[in-house]
Fold this protein.
Amino acid sequence: MAGPIGPVVGVIGAGQLARMTQQAAIALGVELRVLANSPDESAARVIADVRLGDYRDLATLRDFAKGCDAITFDHEHVPTEHIRALAGDGFAVHPGADALVHAQDKAVMRERLTAIGAPCPPWRRIATVADVEEFAGENGWPVVLKAVRGGYDGRGVWVCRSAQEAAEVLATGVPLMAEAFVPFERELAVLVARSPHGQGVSYPVVETVQRDGICVEVLAPAPGLDAEEAAQAQRIALRIAHELGVTGLLAVEMFATASGLVVNELAMRPHNSGHWTIDGARTSQFEQHLRAVLDLPLGSPSMSAPVVVMANLLGGDDPDLFSRYEHVMAHDPGIKVHFYGKEVRPGRKIGHVTAFGDDLDEVRARARHAAVYLSEGVYT
Amino acid sequence: MAGPIGPVVGVIGAGQLARMTQQAAIALGVELRVLANSPDESAARVIADVRLGDYRDLATLRDFAKGCDAITFDHEHVPTEHIRALAGDGFAVHPGADALVHAQDKAVMRERLTAIGAPCPPWRRIATVADVEEFAGENGWPVVLKAVRGGYDGRGVWVCRSAQEAAEVLATGVPLMAEAFVPFERELAVLVARSPHGQGVSYPVVETVQRDGICVEVLAPAPGLDAEEAAQAQRIALRIAHELGVTGLLAVEMFATASGLVVNELAMRPHNSGHWTIDGARTSQFEQHLRAVLDLPLGSPSMSAPVVVMANLLGGDDPDLFSRYEHVMAHDPGIKVHFYGKEVRPGRKIGHVTAFGDDLDEVRARARHAAVYLSEGVYT
């Protein structure tokens, strides 16, 4: 590997987010370095500067960080104290530990959001079945139990309808918190970026459609969303980014309820709800994240088509993904396909597709057709 | 480097065209391999599977090609007989030698275009000053002398106004041909793709603006071009692709003259006149090239904005390109910047910028502002 010409950004983790960041890095002349567990990983397949090592080991992280102009993350599992140590060494880590902890620890997140007045469901740290029963006495069943750390894609979340169900979750020994079940109408997400010098931008509010706790579809912009509610959602997300001192991207997942918006989860990195921006916005979320962590002025978040729909590809039973390319590309020359370079396993996110146009129903049908065919080989 | 999951495409050469192809390969799940002269090269900096070697050596090429599902090119300098040998070994080389020779050898190109009735200027193979004088006697001065092989970006082209000037060019010993000087109104380019099974698509006709023989600006679509003339230009380009058996991309550079279109040059690879498609078309030329060489159905060439302008960044005196990022990004959040990871040298193509919008004058001014500032540090 030759010496760098452009700024070097180190990404800890080498999944599909780091992989897609490479597309933006190539354009910006940013030299991407990834810390991977294995050379098989999604991003390691497409990047020249791959370092192998364990992100839980501080010495590995310190060695990795040498020569990087900024350090950022593909996932939220790096120990908070290691991030603090890297910053103490003088490395520019974005987001910083004090911000990132809100995406790592759901109880810390709820405490802080409650303190700044962002809309949250009733919630409480709990340790025993009695705690859950008391919480349910005040807020009713079901009670949503969440692992305080480490959950994603529906893992680490249990909707409990009785003390018996809660007892089973508690028996796993995972530190938990309780949240009231929110009877939502739909789920929205707001993706914002904030740079170290404090510039913020917000992408249009999108609707996310989940199945079994996994996002399957993103509709941009959120269909039929009232302009005032959209602006409110963006204000909430920008305010959280500001108050928490986020540097880089922040995705705020929200429930739309009959009585208004409720914040569900935070992520501080490029996010599945923003994959549509690669083909559908003037600045992709991956470019935006690089600009933010390098403290460069942020790019236009405007859409390049009136309606954009992203659908995730989930692994099916047939591992031969590429044999299904021909039909999808011939059927719809306007569809954009993104494969993550991952072996197909049932239910695994292995890619996504994006469709654009003027009419939501038509665009959504096209995205679905491609996603179902690529995932399952089924012609819908 | 781990074993491949997706199709493997080998690119001979590791310049900016291979570099930008990597962005498309990442999305398609195509594993790109490049043959580079050095690990410093533009594409070698952003690709995991880099092989070092000399593209003029057949044994190197054969070793490089092993395991590739398709072989293609970053440049047109690979010896025709080596390409033929690789195809003889059973490798899928696109474009093939019989097509590519028309982009390698200008006299072969003119013979073939004349045979299929594509519009050419008067031309002739020449060897002596007497040949040039005879040609000038029929077609007038100036006479354009061109190196039959190896020229690009204005190199290998001499506009001679006298027998004396022609004699100086002949004295270099380079094999030459003569063409009549075409009094053109402007230059147009048509980029088409053709796949091995014969599907063709054409991008909108663009206007290219040159300075000192180097393309500095591309306007998409070509402003004020009559619809019939645009269709004619596309028909000419698609017909050449078909007649020559091109597989992959074909860029046809044309002169627009008072008496109609004249074909100037051919390139069989992604081309500078198509860089606008990365941000400005639904399918970038790089994705289109990969789809074509893998014989996948081709993608939509439609534009994602009414007007798109691309401006090249040429190296200036100040090597510190990145220090000028801040102003350009802050000034225009909608501008797209592409750096090629090359050391700055005066006059060298080191990147490009793209702007979009509805109004040509405004979009062109934005692209120029960014290009001049990034290239020269001058605020226009």
